[in-house]
Design a protein that fits this description.
Largest sheet: 6 strands, mixed
Number of helices: 12
Helix content: 25-40%
Strand content: 15-25%
Radius of gyration: 24 Å
Shape: globular
Length: 479
Amino acid sequence: MAPHRVVVIGSGFGGLFGTQALRRRDDVEITLVAKTSHHLFQPLLYQVATGILSEGGISPSTREILARQKNARVILGTVTAIDLGAKTVTSEVLGRETVTPFDTLLVAAGAGQSYFGNDQFAEYAPGMKSIDDALELRGRIFGAFEWAELATAPAERDRYLTFVVVGAGPTGVEMAGQIAELAHRTLRRDFRSIDPRQARIVLIDAAPQVLPSFGDRLGGSARDRLTKMGVEVELGTKVVGVDSTGIDIEKSDGTPARIEAMTKVWAAGVQGSELGAMLADQSDAELDRAGRVRVNPDLTLPGRPDVYVIGDMASLDNLPGVAQVAIQGARYAAKHLMARLDGKPAPPSFSYFDKGSMATISRFSAVASVGKLRFSGFLAWVLWLAIHIVYLIGFKQRITTLLHWTVSFIGRGRSERTVTAQQILARNIIRTMDPKDLPKLPVVESDHVTPTPAPTSTTRASASAPGEPASDEGGHSAT
């Protein structure tokens, strides 16, 4: 009997844990399709952006993680089409298209940054959802101090030394706290023309409190700690404009204001993957305001028991967009699928077990909400460290992360301060390129245009004429 073909979209928590939950099934053949070659531990992305951790420390290779799982295959590509009628997934990377058939589909493509209808803000205020985002922000943050050192006019220097973080959720709070520590501790002796301790860090949110999901007491504690660190907290404040040199805001009383700042970080709001709309158009599913798919209680797509949607893409019972929802949803979907394959009764509807929420504010200071317990300070910080080490995948990653934390939290140094102009500029350059000018894999005349297909997929080469390699602007083949 032919194996049951499962296609998993996404290599985040949902996709990876869903794949691993099926590792003992010899009757299942899994193809994991992902647009990156790594699994990203997103909760620590802000530490890559602020020079504490390297990108490799939080993003182990997906192939390496699944190397011993014989029923799993990994292919690189951005999913461009899902055909529920034909039961195929089409992915593309550098002009090479791959079509993968499925019997069951597990969609765990995550979510992107939401600018609440103002996508033009992204040009000047990057979000923080990927390694590319974190490296760009690292370049902008450390670069701002370098450019301030060169400034000759006080207004110009102040503009470079002002950092605005939009969004007072966990990511925004953690980012604001780390920029403050970077300025006050790590860099304070490194410059001659400026004093990094004079940096201005502003945290903005339209909500009335910091960390609203943590409750009034912990939110107040976090705000007090940030204020002591020199962070200006502007609540009830809307962002109405962003440009290259600053940010325009509207305060709670309707008063307009402007903050001159070269470095802006967007940590407010998420938007479901565009694949959600693709699924909704071919099924009875609806999308919520954030573009997430409203799923059945068993995490399947309405009208399609062969399609599961999990993690940040799924909308069910107002569940939060956190890693544990994706992990538990992935394991449930795998259990549900195995029961179906074995002809056994389906498990009860998915029920999320909330293991708590935590956020760091600075070294030795965090807030934690676990069950009915609410606590902050050093104990919460130690618990935060322990939990993140446990869920960080890979022994090497755990060891290197502990070493980097020792250097940064006990000492003053940050070992990941290397930045390049490419990190800062590449995203916007690629975004503005004409699609026909984007690099493609070269096609050589002696190669087969259609390679021998793997058991579960077929590939098609790019549209370049045979013998005519796709080239970048400099005339070199793009590889």
